[in-house]
Every structure is written in structure tokens, then in C-alpha cells.
């Protein structure tokens, strides 16, 4: 995952500009951070374990700086393994987002040539490889290019040379450039949001693009051929978005409260584009919905809606386990991926493969602008949910499943009904969020649950993925073990764990499986477990979507009572751009 950032310009102090940028990027990883600046033709470096911390920043003012925030994949979380990594002669320094898959074999070869390694990272192998290429190459740019073409895996790198050149190369993990209005300031970053307030235009690098800053200007090259690419056609006007907690204590709770509006944004989706996708869905033999983590639950819920309302053979996959489907899928099938970032590595790998090998059509529903997934899409949809800053996803999940519901209603031929139901849903969630009684009940339950070691959540049918997502939210935010099971499957195994004092939450809707869930509840009660009920009495096709809001609130308050870092839970990162 990891975040990459750079600033070149005289209007701001590059050191603090990069520091601020890293703060905005640390949702991508917060194992360690590092900043390197140019000072008197020398590169000075600061790097530390933990979250970005002003007290530890001891670098002079500068006009050129690069920075990195790490989510460790290779090598422990130590100061030494933190990025950026110096070349042996300190003439350049490099930070990476990704995994160099062939680092072991290349390292062995470099060892034989007496290169020394001081860290355990794959990143340092890239640094030494560039040094090795420099011996023959006519300049550092050529050396970087040659070395980059030898890397396997998805890798994006940024390099600062002691002469003040900044080079960014993208393959896989995102890299975006930003330009101030008067063009005198240039930013590099892993996302547009982190520099949005300061720039007027952006340029999203494609895979295989190399952006070089040297002596006041940027040039763009194809990393494979080394040929220049025309910059003029590539730049986009930035869409400014505000990022502030406002009256809320955390981004998570703010984002939960934004959900009625997020559903309104789904209602405003362009009907013609949705209709085109619905037609493709009907033409397809199988529809595969794919995602990872929370987006995996969203993909499964979208598949559920397509089966239930559209009567479509929709299958859900999780990114990490999708590879065995590559052989089964063919060009009469369709892949749909909901994603917050549009950069999830395992999903992207699957999509790239099936598009290339099997010419499969692909639809995406993404929240971040300019993502790789959007660009690969035959049918592209933007969630327009606004920036989601909390590492745990809430509003984007609700957006994804509301979109899936609407899509399924269009496939069913009931667009109007779908829209009306979403309008009602938005009002209902608004009420739920503003009901003091409701919130107090959830808080009381959260207080009890925050003292538990295991929490069970049971549901069925439309609520099956909802309880799974509720489980994900509790695990992520409170570090308590949670277990989401189909209420019907309970008696096949987990019933052995039901005994006095075990907390079990039942999520129930007023639908055809209600009685089954009530039966399971009675079985659990008979074993004297502590049963809690989250019930939606209203008969509604979108009941599951309002139920997840209650579970999100519950997870938020449990994490709050535990005193955890809610917006940045330990060990995880928001956009998983490595496999
Ligand atoms: N492989 C690099 C490391 O472990 C970067 C990891 C990443 O991008 O998540 O330091």
C-alpha cells in the first residue's frame, strides 16, 4: 500500500508541504514514514517508525522534497526499513509503493557484485539495481528506466537526486501529479485528494509512464521505449473536495452521517449508462461480482440483488481467491467490481487477466477519481460519495450496495420502484441517525460488547452479507473477535459455542426468511446465550441497507469505548495496492 508524496516549488517550504501531504496519505499505511530534502546539493533524510509526527521532523527548509508513508510488506517495521532508501554514494534516494516480486533473485546477483544491503526491504534492491545500471547508462534517468524494466510485480517508485531531479515511475500502484495555477509548483502523490487544495490541474500517470522533473519542467516518457509522451493531452482540471471533520469527533462517524446524501447521489446516477449496463447484464451468461474486504461484501450483496430481482446468474468472488476462475470465465461473461480506491491489487490483476486473455467486459463502481479500474472499464460508474477518510469503509459500502440494488431493479424492469425505494431508504436512515433513543440503545449495547472477547452476529438472506460486513467493522475498529454466520448454518457447527454469557446479535428483516432467523434465535436462547436483536419491522426490499447503518454505528461506539484509534485502526491500510 504505502503513500508517496513530493513537492517542488518556492511558494511553500517543501519540507512541511511533504509533511502535510504524508499526513493526508497515511490512511495508506502508517508503519513508518520518511522525508528527504535537498539542501546545498546534498540529500538530507529523516525517517521514523510510527505515524507521521511533527516533533520528530528535523529537516531544514527546502524547495524540493520527497516523502513516503509505509505499510510494510518486506522487512520488519524499523527505522532502517522505513523509506526512502539511499544509494550507496548518497547521490539519489528512492521510495516505493508495491512489491518487487523478483527481488530475491536480483539481490543474489547484486550480492555477487559486492553490493551491500543495510535494510531487509525489496525497495533497497531497486536502489542497488539502479546503481548497477548507472555504470553503463548515459545518465541517471536511463539507469532508472533500465532498472525499472527489470522489476516484476506492481511497483511505483519515486526518486530524488542530489541535483534536484525528481523521477516518478508508475506500474500498478497509483501516482498522480498536481500543478499549481501559475505552474510554478509541482506535486507528486499517490492520490489527488492529498494535494487538492493547492493545485489547479492534475495528471494521472498511466502504467508505464515515467514523469521527470528537471530544471523547472516536467517531461513524460514511456518507461519501456524511453520515448517522450506529449503532456498537453494528459492534464485534467482538478475537482476540489473539502476534507474536514467538522463537528464530528472522527471521520468514521461523520461518514456514517453522510449516508442519506450518499444514497441521494446514487439516485442521481445517469439512467442511460445504467440501462446500458443492465442490457449487458441480461446478455451475459454469468455475471461475476468481485471485491476484497468490505468491497468483497459489497460485491456479494450486489450479486444477491442481481439474483433476487434480476434473476441473473450472478456469482461473487473475493479478489484474493479469484484466480481459479480465470480459466472458467469467457467472453460471454461480465465482471463487476465495486471499489473505493479502484486500485485494489488482487482485483486489478484478475480484471487485467480476464480482459486480456478472454476479452471479458468489465464494469466498475469506484469512489476515487482517475483510478486504474475506471480506466480499464467498459462500463464506468463513479460513486460520488465524497472523500472517505476513515480507513474503515462505511459510506462507500452503502453507496456500492445501493447502486447494486438500483441496477438489479433496472434489470428487473422496475427502475421507478427502485428509485422510490431508495428515496424512502435515504429518509429512513436519516431518521435512524437522528433518533436519540436509537443511538442511546446502540451506545448501551456497544458498552456491553466492548468488554467481550467474542461477538457473534447472525442473519440470513438479504442480511447475510450485512452481518459479514458488521463483523468486519467490529474486527477492524475494536480488535475484538467477531463471527458472522448465516442463522441457518448455526446448528451445523457454531451452536457448540452457545452458552451462558456469549453475546449473539441477530439482524432481522421483515421478509420471507424472518421465521428461520427467529427459530435460530430461540435455539440460541435455549442455550442461555445473551441475545440482542437488531430488527427492522418495516417490509422493505432495502432493509439490509438500513441494517448495516446500525451495525456501523455499533462498531463505531465499541471502538470508541475501547479507546482505539478509530480512523486509523492498527495494521491495516485503506487502499490495498499490494497483493
Ligand atoms: N515493499 C515495500 C516495503 O515493504 C513497500 C510496501 C508497500 O507498498 O506496501 O517496504
From TrEMBL:
Q: Which domain of life is it from?
A: Bacteria
The GO terms this record gives for MF are: carbohydrate derivative binding; glutamine-fructose-6-phosphate transaminase (isomerizing) activity
Which residue range or ranges hold the Glutamine amidotransferase type-2 domain? Answer: 2-216
Say yes or no: keyword Cytoplasm present.
Answer: no
Keyword Repeat among record annotations = yes
One Pfam family of this protein, by short name? Answer: GATase_6
What is this enzyme's catalytic activity, as reactions? D-fructose 6-phosphate + L-glutamine = D-glucosamine 6-phosphate + L-glutamate
Which residues does the UniProt record annotate as the domain SIS?
Answer: 277-417, 445-569
Q: Which UniProt keywords apply?
A: Aminotransferase, Glutamine amidotransferase, Repeat, Transferase
Name the Enzyme Commission number(s) assigned to this protein: 2.6.1.16
Its GO biological process terms?
fructose 6-phosphate metabolic process; protein N-linked glycosylation; UDP-N-acetylglucosamine metabolic process
State the protein's name: Glutamine--fructose-6-phosphate aminotransferase [isomerizing]
Organism for this UniProt entry = Candidatus Woesebacteria bacterium GW2011_GWB1_33_22
Amino acid at each position: 500500500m504505502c503513500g508517496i508524496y513530493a513537492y517542488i516549488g518556492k511558494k511553500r517550504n517543501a519540507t512541511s508541504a511533504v509533511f502535510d501531504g504524508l499526513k493526508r496519505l497515511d490512511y495508506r499505511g502508517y508503519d513508518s514514514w520518511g522525508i528527504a530534502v535537498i539542501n546545498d546539493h546534498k540529500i538530507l533524510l529523516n525517517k521514523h517508525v510510527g505515524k507521521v509526527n511533527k516533533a520528530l521532523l528535523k529537516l531544514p527548509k527546502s524547495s524540493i522534497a520527497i516523502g513516503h508513508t509505509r505499510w510494510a510488506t518486506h522487512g520488519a517495521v524499523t527505522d532502517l526499513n522505513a523509506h526512502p532508501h539511499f544509494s550507496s554514494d548518497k547521490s539519489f534516494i528512492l521510495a516505493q509503493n508495491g512489491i518487487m516480486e523478483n527481488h530475491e533473485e536480483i539481490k543474489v546477483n547484486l550480492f555477487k557484485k559486492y553490493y551491500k544491503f543495510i535494510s531487509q526491504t525489496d525497495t533497497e534492491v531497486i536502489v542497488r539495481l539502479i546503481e548497477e545500471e548507472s555504470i553503463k547508462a548515459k545518465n541517471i534517468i536511463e539507469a532508472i528506466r533500465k532498472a525499472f524494466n527489470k522489476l516484476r510485480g506492481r511497483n511505483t517508485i519515486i526518486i530524488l537526486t542530489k541535483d534536484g531531479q525528481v523521477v516518478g515511475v508508475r506500474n500498478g500502484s497509483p501516482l498522480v501529479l498536481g500543478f499549481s495555477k501559475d505552474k510554478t509548483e509541482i506535486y507528486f502523490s499517490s492520490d489527488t485528494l492529498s494535494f487538492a487544495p493547492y493545485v489547479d490541474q492534475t495528471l494521472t500517470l498511466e502504467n508505464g509512464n515515467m514523469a521527470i522533473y528537471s530544471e523547472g519542467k516536467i517531461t513524460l516518457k514511456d518507461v519501456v521505449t524511453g520515448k517522450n509522451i506529449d503532456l498537453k493531452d494528459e492534464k485534467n482540471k482538478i475537482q476540489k473536495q473539502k476534507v474536514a471533520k467538522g463537528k464530528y469527533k472522527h471521520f468514521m462517524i461523520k461518514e456514517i452521517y453522510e449516508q442519506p446524501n450518499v444514497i441521494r447521489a446514487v439516485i442521481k446516477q445517469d439512467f442511460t449508462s445504467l440501462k446500458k449496463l443492465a442490457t449487458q447484464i441480461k446478455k451475459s451468461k454469468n455475471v461475476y461480482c468481485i471485491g476484497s474486504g468490505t468491497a468483497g461484501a459489497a460485491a456479494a450483496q450486489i450479486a444477491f440483488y442481481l439474483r433476487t430481482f434480476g434473476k441473473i446468474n450472478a456469482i461473487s468472488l473475493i479478489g484474493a481467491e479469484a484466480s481459479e476462475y480465470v480459466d472458467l470465465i469467457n467472453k460471454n461473461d461480465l465482471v463487476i467490481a465495486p471499489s473505493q480506491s479502484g486500485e485494489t491489487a488482487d482485483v486489478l490483476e484478475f480484471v487485467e487477466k480476464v480482459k486480456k486473455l478472454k476479452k471479458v467486459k468489465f464494469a466498475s463502481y469506484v469512489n476515487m477519481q482517475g483510478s486504474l479500474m475506471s480506466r480499464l472499464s467498459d462500463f464506468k460508474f463513479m460513486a460520488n460519495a465524497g472523500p472517505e477518510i476513515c480507513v474503515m469503509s462505511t459510506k462507500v459500502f452503502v453507496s456500492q450496495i445501493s447502486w447494486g440494488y438500483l441496477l438489479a431493479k433496472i434489470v428487473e424492469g422496475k427502475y421507478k420502484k427502485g428509485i422510490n425505494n431508495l428515496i424512502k431508504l435515504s429518509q429512513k436512515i436519516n431518521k435512524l441517525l437522528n433518533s436519540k433513543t436509537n443511538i442511546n440503545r446502540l451506545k448501551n449495547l456497544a458498552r456491553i460488547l466492548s468488554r467481550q472477547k467474542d461477538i457473534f452476529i447472525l442473519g440470513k438472506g438479504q442480511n447475510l452479507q450485512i452481518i459479514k460486513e458488521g463483523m468486519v467493522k467490529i474486527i477492524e475498529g475494536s480488535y475484538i473477535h467477531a463471527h458472522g454466520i448465516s442463522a441457518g448454518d448455526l446448528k451445523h457447527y457454531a451452536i457448540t459455542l452457545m452458552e451462558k454469557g456469549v453475546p449473539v446479535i441477530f439482524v432481522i428483516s421483515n421478509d420471507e426468511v424472518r421465521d428461520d432467523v427467529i427459530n435460530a434465535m430461540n435455539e440460541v436462547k435455549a442455550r442461555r446465550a445473551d441475545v440482542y436483536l437488531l430488527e427492522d419491522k418495516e417490509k422493505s426490499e432495502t432493509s439490509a441497507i438500513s441494517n448495516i447503518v446500525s451495525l456501523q454505528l455499533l462498531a463505531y461506539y465499541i471502538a470508541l469505548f475501547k479507546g482505539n484509534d478509530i480512523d486509523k485502526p492498527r495494521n491495516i491500510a485503506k487502499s490495498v495496492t499490494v497483493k
